[in-house]
Here is the input.
Amino acid sequence: MKKALCVKVRKNLGEKTIKTLSILNLINRDLKVKKAGDFLFVPIIVKPDSRHLSALKEEIGEFKLCESSFSERKKRLDLSEIASRHLPSHLVSYFPRSFDIIGHIAIIEVPPKLRRYEDRVGRIILEAHKNVRTVLAKAGAIRGTYRLRRFRVIAGLEETETLHREHGCRFLLDPTKVYFSPRLSFEHNRVASLVREGETVIDMFAGIGPFSILIAKKVSDVKVYAIDINPFAVKYLNVNISLNSVEDKVTPILGDAREVVSRKLLRSADRVIMNLPERSDKYLDVACEALKPEGGIIHYYQFLKGRDSIREIEKKVVDIVRESGKRECIVKYSRFVKEVAPYTWQAVFDLKVA
Here is the structure.
């Protein structure tokens, strides 16, 4: 038995708690979750900071931080152990500690020191993760109107189309043709959980539909307009709408969000989602125009660089809304979503516009 900090919740919240702690990278996977009476005790690796606590409260409501004793899990062979069998000993420490898995595909950034051994890096991942059949190495930054990245297949099959599961939804996609980040899983669920019955939602940069489809699955009476400019994204969006049986709730639209809203969707939405962090400020005016006359909510995403503070960006965003949309605006919620590069973060701002 080993003592550890943990999150105590009622059993009926156990699955949601474990999933949320996993997304926040807080769960201690070396220890077993413990049941006692009507409660679960989920071990964590560090004390949650204020942002973690806010996310936990929003996702699961009532919980308690405490300390308890846990049984240890049987140790599995970890990546560094496998890497030590395939790589020169002086290079093992350079092996990446984290990477994304989308369906059967692992996506990895190969450090320069391991570039000449990237085929071995791929084989290590295949050995460690039996569900992975293809390993892609990043071969450039995300760029262009469609937000695409170049990849190299370094191990396994050449198949880049895959079926990814998230929050009970199924998504068919090809990461070489469309943008998708599994690291936004928590954010997809957070936003979907805020949507109320009877709302009309405009997802301005919908991609393959992770926000739109999850909203439609969670809310009985909702209308979602899912817009994207990438024809491959809309192709997969159509497939995923059918896969998840939400044809009566989600309307896919191919086109530039500004043109689509101006032509078809002015003053129609209760809620607008703007997951285009590199250029979202250029579309805030049209997001305001998409809201109903009485106002609504905008989920606005933006990159923060260097010494940008989240409070400074909040002020700038409010000013942009007031100047471009001629509407009043307050920030209801904000947080860092993920780090996307050294000293660069993606942040979300939930704006109430009236």
User: Anything to note?
Assistant: The chain is about 30% helix and 30% strand. The two ends are 55 Å apart (CA to CA). The chain has a mean pLDDT of 93. The chain has three domains: 2-70, 79-160, 179-353.
